Sequence to fold (259 residues):
Amino acid sequence: MANLRVSLVQTDLVWENPSANCAQLEEKLAALGGSTDVVVLPEMFATGFSMSETGAEIGKGPALQWMQVQSNRLGALVIGSLKVKQQNSFYNRLYAVHPDGSYSSYDKRHLFRMGGEHEFYQSGDQQVIVSYKGWNIALFICYDLRFPVWSRNVSMAYDAAIYVANWPAPRANAWRTLLQARAIENLTFVVGVNRVGTDANELAYSGDSLLVDFKGDLLLDLKSADQILTSELSLESLAEFRAKFPAHLDADSFSLSSL
Fold:
């Protein structure tokens, strides 16, 4: 069973300026070549969490192409969400880009109504699990974290869950607590990557990006620093724990209805 090196990229973002954000991120990521398998960027890393058309990707836009270049250069799966315009609708879309240029995408299911996200973006309705280097990785975005049914690891379908976020500092305790809860209840590794800094709406972000193991223990805690940290995950240790503590066998069955 192969181990997986995961890099959490916690950074400030330039408001609605994709070229500036991609340029500064490219400089930060350069040192990761050959030393990681998965790179996780914050939610809407190219623009910040904005409710306007500015900086939106249309089709295979420049920010997605940038992700493809970085993935190939680093030899790693690169994960991050972008503001996307498709026909006349907008989506908060999370991409997982492979080194060969192929990619999967997940449209955010739960739109943050307290920030008006539901008035500008369209909600997704499909869960997405990406396979990479023998690992199954579930994709989620920010507010999804508050909804355990959507995150439920039915039949242990995934080995790690990724949550990318722009989660404001006043609710940092909820962010940290829920990441640990999702890991414990789903018997899985959980990666939560948030931004730092202050955006154009004067919302402050304290980071608190975490890597949590299947017992809820913190493997990485980036606190409030603008930094990148990497840790190695063991699929063997995950399998051993699930075998010794198979709580999933007693899970309640359910079916999802559309929102």
